[in-house]
Amino acid sequence: MAEPTQLVPLTRPEFYKLARRCRDFSAKLATRDHDVVDPEMCAEFNAFLAQVRRYDRLAGPLASLRPARPVTRRAVVGVALVLWLLTLVFGGLVMSSTAWLVALSWSSTAILLVLLIPQSTYGTTVEQIEGRVLAVVEALQEILAGGEMGFTEAAFFQVRDLLQETAADLRLQTLGRSAGWR
Known about the structure:
69% helix; single chain; 2 domains; mainly alpha
């Protein structure tokens, strides 16, 4: 059984670094195709989420945030093609000709259906990652608004503005796209 990781206190410098990292990650996500699963972005988000959950003040609010699933359409189509080939090659040996034709037609239909199913069904798209980064930004904003970090006035406004800009950009990227803006 894995030993639980020790939570690290969230300090002011770490808080600022996280806010800056969210901003940079948001900018990087904006350059990607939002309707597809990007394994590189999934891996980067999963590493980011593991880092964020180390902090004592963020572990609780972000406990329900799930890691990204890097299952691409290419992988799902590949599995469907392998099943189709197995049906094509070995189905005739094991099944009667009528059953084999039915199985072959079903597996052919499955390949076409896989191409029609949205990628967000089996993997995490870039747009969904943006929504999860937005959840991290909102958790940081709540901590900042609570006054728990003890920032000086200038640093407080600098971090607040950085988080507000990041949240606005992420909302525009996710909500704007779902409203039909491209």
